[in-house]
Design brief:
about 180 residues, alpha+beta, 9 strands, Hikeshi-like_C, Hikeshi-like_N, Hikeshi-like domain-containing protein, OPI10
């Protein structure tokens, strides 16, 4: 029913059923995993009114919700968050879990997950955002200066910065919120 791809590895279809409507994939050498793709094989869709939550488990940790699969969204790519001691320990086997449940419960769990992950991220203050924008402008336009103290910065430098920044924001709306070091 499900397949799993760890980036850079072959497709896994060795799904194990561990309970009614609960399935797992064992992921060897988990310390090398950055992204996981989980998908319905296309042979058996979810029954009407059902969907699945996808979870990840490092050894000796709690299950971490990654996202949702449904007939409308039969595949997803999940980026694993580094930072645990297991993520750097060679030879660790992690577990990918899939739980099929009524779609209303799946939606509730996913909304709670989104709420908890957004609460864990500190909001960037307007001062931090303004400083990052000003640093971006300064670094970009001063690259047009050739040397002397009386050099003029052409208006084209600001236009180029503006267009470049617009492209970056469209590609990643939070790029100014990320550490720029």
């Amino acid at each position: 029913m499900f397949g799993c791809i760890v980036a850079g590895r072959l497709v896994q279809t060795n799904l194990q059923q561990v309970d009614v409507n609960k399935y797992v994939f064992e992921l060897v050498d988990a310390h090398n995993i950055n992204h996981i793709i989980v998908f319905l094989l296309g042979t058996i869709p979810f029954e009407p009114g059902f969907a699945a939550t996808v979870h990840f488990l490092w050894p000796n940790k709690n299950w971490q919700m990654l996202g949702v699969l449904s007939n409308d969204k039969p595949s997803a790519v999940f980026r694993l968050q580094p930072g645990t001691e297991n993520s750097t320990t060679p030879g660790v086997t992690a577990t990918l879990g899939i739980s099929i449940e009524p779609i209303n419960l799946v939606e509730q769990q996913y909304q709670a997950h989104l709420q908890s992950t957004s609460n864990n991220k500190p909001a960037a203050s307007p001062i931090v955002i303004a400083e990052r924008i000003l640093n971006q402008v300064y670094n970009f336009v001063t690259s047009y200066v050739s040397g002397g103290s009386n050099d003029m910065i052409p208006l084209k430098a600001f236009e180029n910065w503006y267009q470049t920044t617009q492209r970056k924001v469209k590609a990643d709306p939070s790029f100014l919120l990320k550490n720029s070091e």
